[in-house]
Amino acid sequence: QGAPPLRLPAHSPRVEMLVRRFSSPASWPLLVTPAWLQSRLADPSVAILDCSWYMPAAKRSGRAEFAKESIPGARFFDIDATSDASQDLPHMLPSAGSFERAVAELGIDAAQHIVCYDG
């Protein structure tokens, strides 16, 4: 059955923080429209990542397509280079430290809103 759900009193600071974090009108949206993104292309608090990846049979390269055409200001996020290659399965999540280094190399910090897209 597993552990019972966590129950916090309604006046708990943790509940208030979570509600504020996830429901605040000032928070960034989880899903954005092209118009929203276009109006923020020059905003340094928004980081745009092209995360395009294709199955080998598709004979397409996300990196090559990014080099030809991308959203202005976007950076290419190489899923293959970032995944945990020490695992037997492909595309396994990297450690937190490896992920932090990968995004830092792209010039992304924790204060930015990250918008990911693919081809």
UniProtKB/TrEMBL annotation:
<dbReference type="InterPro" id="IPR001763">
    <property type="entry name" value="Rhodanese-like_dom"/>
</dbReference>
<keyword id="KW-0808">Transferase</keyword>
<dbReference type="InterPro" id="IPR036873">
    <property type="entry name" value="Rhodanese-like_dom_sf"/>
</dbReference>
<feature type="domain" description="Rhodanese">
    <location>
        <begin position="42"/>
        <end position="119"/>
    </location>
</feature>
<dbReference type="GO" id="GO:0005739">
    <property type="term" value="C:mitochondrion"/>
</dbReference>
<dbReference type="GO" id="GO:0004792">
    <property type="term" value="F:thiosulfate-cyanide sulfurtransferase activity"/>
</dbReference>
<keyword id="KW-0677">Repeat</keyword>
<protein>
    <recommendedName>
        <fullName>Rhodanese domain-containing protein</fullName>
    </recommendedName>
</protein>
<dbReference type="InterPro" id="IPR045078">
    <property type="entry name" value="TST/MPST-like"/>
</dbReference>
